[in-house]
Give the backbone structure.
Amino acid sequence: MKIKTKIIGNKVHDVGYRVFLLRKALEIGVERFNAYNTKENGDQVLISILDGDNDQILTFKDYIRNNKPENAEVSDTIFEDYAGYVIGVVDYMHLIQVEQLSKGIPAILSIDQKQGKMLDKQDQMLEKQDQTRTEISGEIRELRMDLRSYLDEKLLKIENDIFQIKTKIGLKA
């Protein structure tokens, strides 16, 4: 016996619904199962197809009516008979794995590219920091030289003033 289920709502894609249903199908011993996302009239729709005995189908229907993934928003569930081919559950698991990898690889590549750009920016920041440190060191060196010249001048004036005072009061230097 085969059944097709349409789960319709604002949020039935990207909430783990297919794996959620696959887990239940495996749990009740179903050998043939398929599920895929589509859209109808602007709504998100999850189609699942199950081939099993009467008890498995009743259990699956009851599960769908009473359970959903945490972030799913379901507005309607439609059950109807199905006459077409249903892929084996193990083949479906492989299909899901390949699909998830095909989603993950671009994400990993994007992260790698962004990380490369961040490292380039970090290198630029470090170069600018080194340049700024060199400039500040040069400015400090110049300030030291200016301060030394200023203090040398003041010290000479003080020594000269002391010499003149000693000469006025009759002290020899």
Q: What stands out?
A: The helical segments are 17-27, 54-66, 89-169. The chain has a mean pLDDT of 93. The two ends are 122 Å apart (CA to CA).
